[in-house]
């Protein structure tokens, strides 16, 4: 059976971008057709300045939201990265496989290290080595497919290079995985700045719809979305990024393709109202289920405990084999 691994960082509250770009596919397709491992990658939240209590709170909320969105423990494995030691054990061996140069070339490293320096912080070494830990997250399970947004393509490419190099040096140990990018909603954009992606780690919440926003908050954010100077509803990411983003969100929520939907609307107001309604309806069951699960922390703990147990069992033999292969 195809094995799938994917993760979410607990660096902020989950957004509509995470849901449409990643989680929905895990829920509706991946967990049914494959052996899916879905992980809250908490170690990755430590690569930039962090508040321990916040990371702990967000890890739990993220795991609860994955279940609320519909990941079912009887179909897939949901767990927290730091509960399974094999990720960091393997990461060290992969650090001995990767080169300094190839990590410094990573676009996200360049962007995030520049950001840290600008705000007067030192750059944590883990920000540089983060893609190696991500490679370990993936390779440790013999993963075949990694469903991720376009922003992660370079990291999955590195993972493949490391797997091939390790296998060539020490004998076949790792499956070489491939990235699978979602066709629809591959990039949901910020409602206030439709040229940058709707990201949970961004500071301003005004252009970001969070999965736990109540219907009034969702409506307010969508109605205030930046549109373009024209008045005509067209789907064109270059000239009308704000309107194109709304059309794509509406299309992802309620079906229909963005070009056809553009023909249906004569004003931005009507498009915004329908988009807001569609997002509210999409998120309603997730919010309701989250409230039920949050009231039952024992259940979530048990799911995560069992998830980590299964993940550890899957990972251990491969990591042991890798240690033996390198001569330890
Ligand atoms: P973030 O960028 O929100 O910190 P993560 O790195 O935790 O997200 O990514 C979780 C998943 O959500 C990844 O597969 C990522 O590609 C996807 N994702 C994140 N933001 C968006 C977005 N705005 N549009 C589409 N997919 C997204």
TrEMBL record:
Binding residues annotated for ATP, in chain numbering: 9-11, 17-18, 149-151, 188, 197-201
Task: Set out the biological process GO terms recorded for this chain's protein.
Answer: tryptophanyl-tRNA aminoacylation
The EC number(s) this enzyme carries: 6.1.1.2
Q: Name one GO cellular component term.
A: cytosol
Give the location of motif 'HIGH' region in residue numbers: 10-18
Q: Which residues bind L-tryptophan?
A: 137
Q: Please give the catalytic activity noted in the UniProt record.
A: tRNA(Trp) + L-tryptophan + ATP = L-tryptophyl-tRNA(Trp) + AMP + diphosphate + H(+)
Motif 'KMSKS' region, which positions? 197-201
Say if the entry is tagged with keyword ATP-binding. yes
GO MF annotation list: ATP binding; tryptophan-tRNA ligase activity
Q: What keywords are assigned to this protein? A: Aminoacyl-tRNA synthetase, ATP-binding, Cytoplasm, Ligase, Nucleotide-binding, Protein biosynthesis
State whether keyword Protein biosynthesis applies: yes
What is the first-listed, main subcellular location in coarse terms? cytoplasm
InterPro entries noted in UniProt: aa-tRNA-synth_I_CS, aa-tRNA-synth_Ic, Rossmann-like_a/b/a_fold, Trp-tRNA-ligase, Trp-tRNA-ligase_bac-type, Trp-tRNA_synthetase
Q: Could you tell me which Pfam families the record lists for this protein?
A: tRNA-synt_1b (PF00579)
- Where does the UniProt annotation locate this protein? Cytoplasm
Q: What does this protein do?
A: Catalyzes the attachment of tryptophan to tRNA(Trp).
Read off the NCBIfam families from this record: trpS
Q: Which family does it belong to?
A: Belongs to the class-I aminoacyl-tRNA synthetase family.
Q: Quaternary structure?
A: Homodimer.
Name the chain's protein.
Tryptophan--tRNA ligase
Q: Which organism is it from?
A: Streptomyces tsukubensis (strain DSM 42081 / NBRC 108919 / NRRL 18488 / 9993)
Q: What is the lineage of its organism?
A: Bacteria, Bacillati, Actinomycetota, Actinomycetes, Kitasatosporales
Encoding gene (name): trpS
């Amino acid at each position: 059976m195809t094995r799938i691994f994917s993760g979410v960082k607990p660096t902020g509250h989950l957004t509509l971008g995470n849901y449409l770009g990643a989680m929905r596919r895990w829920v509706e397709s991946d967990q049914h057709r494959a052996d899916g491992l879905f992980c809250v990658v908490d170690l990755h939240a430590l690569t930039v300045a962090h508040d321990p209590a916040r990371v702990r709170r967000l890890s739990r909320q993220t795991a609860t939201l994955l279940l609320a969105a519909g990941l079912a423990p009887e179909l897939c494995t949901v767990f927290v990265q730091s509960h399974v030691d094999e990720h960091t054990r393997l990461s060290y061996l992969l650090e001995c496989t990767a080169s300094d140069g190839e990590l410094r070339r990573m676009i996200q490293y360049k962007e995030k290290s520049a950001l840290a320096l600008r705000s007067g912080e030192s750059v944590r070494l883990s920000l540089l080595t983060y893609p190696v830990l991500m490679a370990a997250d993936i390779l440790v399970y013999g993963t075949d497919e990694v469903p991720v947004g376009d922003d992660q393509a370079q990291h999955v490419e590195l993972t493949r290079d490391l797997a091939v190099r390790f296998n060539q040096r020490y004998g076949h140990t790792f499956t070489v995985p491939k990235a699978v990018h979602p066709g629809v909603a591959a990039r949901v954009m910020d409602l206030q700045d439709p040229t940058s992606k709707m990201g949970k780690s961004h500071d301003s919440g005004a252009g970001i719809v969070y999965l736990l926003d109540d219907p009034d908050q969702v409506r307010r954010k969508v109605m205030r979305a930046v549109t373009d100077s024209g008045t005509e509803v067209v789907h064109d990411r270059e000239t009308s990024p704000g309107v194109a983003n709304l059309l794509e969100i509406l299309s992802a929520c309620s079906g229909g393709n963005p070009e056809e939907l553009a023909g249906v609307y004569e004003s931005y107001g009507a498009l915004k109202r329908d988009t807001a309604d569609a997002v509210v309806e999409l998120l309603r069951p997730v919010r309701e289920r989250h409230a039920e699960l949050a009231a039952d922390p024992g259940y979530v703990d048990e799911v995560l405990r069992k998830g980590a147990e299964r993940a550890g069992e899957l990972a251990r033999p491969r990591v042991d084999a890798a240690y033996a292969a390198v001569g330890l």
